[in-house]
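Submission sheet (multi-component)
Chains listed below:
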Amino acid sequence: MVDIKWEELGFSYIKTPYRYISYWKDGAWDEGKLTEDNMIHINEGSTALHYGQEAFEGLKAYRTKEGGINLFRPEQNAKRLNRSAERMMMPEVPQDKFIDALKEVVLANEEYVPPYGTGATLYLRPFLIGVGPNIGVNPAPEYIFSIFCMPVGPYFKGGMAPTNFIVSEYDRAAPHGTGAAKVGGNYASSLLPGQEAHDRNFSDCIYLDPATHTKIEEVGSANFFAISKDNQFVTPTSPSILPSITKYSLLQLAEERFGMEAVEGDVYIDKLDDYVEAGACGTAAVISPIAGIQNGDNFHVFYSETEVGPVTKKLYDELVGIQYGDVEAPAGWIEKVK
Ligand code: PLP
Ligand code: COI
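Outcome: structure written.
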């Protein structure tokens, strides 16, 4: 057994024994294979290095009570990777190849899938990068698709303890830019705002819509949701936010399992009084309750600075219960690795 204190894990890199790597050249993918080498040797002209021609994904493997291993909606990650790839002019990764490779990586690193009940999971990071000899602003001649993994704990320090967020004056994406694609450039542009938020003791930034700066778009690393006074589950809609798989799952659960009205709509930053709870949601963030939002000089507290609101808690328990196999999943949401 590997010597890891599962309960104490944060969200940091750990080298696990195996990763998958596949090469695309002359119009076709090779078969791909597992390797122990965690270094990638690529041409100095690779577009991923100069022009950000890359895309990535993030999903988790969950150890069930019975010792099985679940993936949560991995075909959605495959589809999103391919939408990102299309936007970045990269070749598609066939869905079967994507899911088979995920399973191979999980099984090869099975010792690193955290035990049930520790709150930790195995985070999987698929990525697709443009490589090969190039210098002009052109799509790369070759591509690498790889998946590595590591056990992780909570992304935001508090986990299920509410934390504070701050409205950023920067934009992470342009109105008709690449915000809806999971591509490196969006995250590179969020590093400085993120650091400024952390320096002021906030968990992360809240970005407003880049066209009018009046509506909440999302968090730097997760989508945003709020619970309205009349028990609606509300989450922003915009062409420049990342379509979160967690968010779409919560929209469905709120409606089907809790009889709430689930709305993709506008959340105006000057109308936060309409909401009684708020949170960040995503694979890494899971559901992270938002205590308060700092907007200029104004600090708005939702439910409580210390306690999780009841609706947020209920949604969390349902989502996480499904992921670990304790609660019955809607059809097709769980892909068993073993
Ligand atoms: N928004 C951003 C910017 C993200 O990086 C992520 C993480 O993947 C999400 C939202 C949440 O997406 P998902 O629920 O598919 O993980
Ligand atoms: C994820 O939730 O998988 C993310 O990609 C968020 C962040 C770690 C980039």
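Remark: Residues 6-152 form a domain with the D-amino Acid Aminotransferase; Chain A, domain 1 fold (CATH 3.30.470.10).
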